């Protein structure tokens, strides 16, 4: 079976935070903006791709890491060759960073561990947003029935979530608790700096 170079955007702080103005303002005040570049990571869906990257020379891993990729499998809801339309801006940023980084990492002569860089770039070009996710359908994508979540999970056995360590499962909560801690620290600093009137 040919490995799939599809990847999904995994949000570290849920995008719903942006919808709540109070939380969004608090996070923005302490420098953790939900719309920031560091709020997401690109994760490959296919565990075989992760294995290839682990076998490859470190230059491939360094290039992908600098571009915004992580190295644990993650199975989103999108079928092969497609992605949620709301992830388009983040995907574009990851791809832009990948292209910008290509000149800084020399892949010539490197052992890529079976990772087909040309196939990876082709999958990026061929991917399109899900037709039912609010974006105009890509005319290159033939209309197909969307497989059920159960079918997607069966294809991804073991699931990417099952392979996550406990630390990685709670990472979004750790980031949120850090934001709250920094927010409390910010409030205390401003209270201490304020003149006390009796």
Low-pLDDT regions? 135-163
Mean pLDDT: 76
Q: Give the total of domains.
A: 1
Oligomer: single chain
Q: Tally of extended strands?
A: 5
Backbone structural class: mainly alpha
Shape, per Cα inertia axes: elongated
Q: Could you explain how this protein is built, in words?
A:
The chain has helices at residues 21-29, 47-55, 58-67, 88-101, 117-126, 149-155, 160-163, 166-169, 171-193; strands spanning 7-11, 40-44, 69-70, 82-83, 128-129. The chain is mostly helical. The chain has one domain (7-193). It is elongated and about 70 Å long. The protein starts with 6 loop residues before the first strand and ends in a 5-residue tail after the last helix.
Question: What are the SSEs and their pairings?
Answer:
Elements: E1 7-11, H1 21-29, E2 40-44, H2 47-55, H3 58-67, E3 69-70, E4 82-83, H4 88-101, H5 117-126, E5 128-129, H6 149-155, H7 160-163, H8 166-169, H9 171-193
Parallel strand pairs: 2-3, 4-5
Antiparallel strand pairs: 1-2
Helix pairs in contact: 3-4
Descriptive terms for the model:
single chain, 3-stranded mixed β-sheet, 45% helix
Could you provide a short overview of the structure?
This protein is mainly α. The protein contains nine helices and five strands.
